[in-house]
Amino acid sequence: MTTLNPSGWCYCGCGSEIAPGAFFRQGHDKKADADLNAIHHGDTVAQRIVDRGYGPGGVNLHERAIELGVRERCGIDDCNVSGVPGSYGMRRHRASHQHGSASSGRASD
Ligand SMILES: [Zn+2]
Ligand SMILES: [Zn+2]
């Protein structure tokens, strides 16, 4: 992957001038993602997964992301949920185990 540098213009191609250091006008990263998906993957995420060699009969995307370290597994009580390493979302998810409806009846420690 090449190192990307902000150009001062929105990367989606809309022509908007944006703040120094930013790549996108607010929300345009989502628009660009959708545009790419429409052009290259039939506008479906499932097709995109398969086009990249993942999915049924291919590499397990979930496991591959964890293996590469771009995602981390929750791991509490064999929980297979994954998220961005060290993120607030993962901390919040793990905290939810404490007062979730765990059937084991094990007290949280
Ligand atoms: Zn834009
Ligand atoms: Zn979990």
Rg over alpha carbons: 19 Å
> Could you tell me which ligands this complex binds, including any ions or cofactors?
zinc ion
Overall outline: extended
Major sheet characteristics: 2 strands, antiparallel
Number of strands: 2
What pattern of helices and strands is seen along the backbone? HHHEEH
Tell me roughly what share of residues is in helical segments. 25-40%
The N- and C-terminal alpha carbons lie at a distance of 43 Å
Strand line-up across the major sheet: 1-2
**Overall pLDDT metric:** 91
Share of β-strand residues: under 5%
**Uncertain runs with pLDDT below 50, 5 residues or more?**
101-109
The tally of helices reads 4
Indicate the structural class: mainly alpha
In words, what does this structure look like?
It is a single chain. The protein is mainly alpha-helical. Helix content is 35%, strand content 4%. It has helices spanning 28-41, 45-51, 61-68, 88-96, and strands at 72-73, 82-83. It has a two-stranded antiparallel sheet with strand order 1-2. It is extended, with a radius of gyration of 19 Å. Bound molecules: zinc ion (2 copies). Residues 10, 12, 14, 16, 24-25, 28 line the site of one zinc ion. One zinc ion is lined by residues 10, 12, 14, 16, 24-25, 28.
List the helices and strands and how they pair.
Layout: H1 28-41, H2 45-51, H3 61-68, E1 72-73, E2 82-83, H4 88-96
The structure holds zinc ion (2 copies).
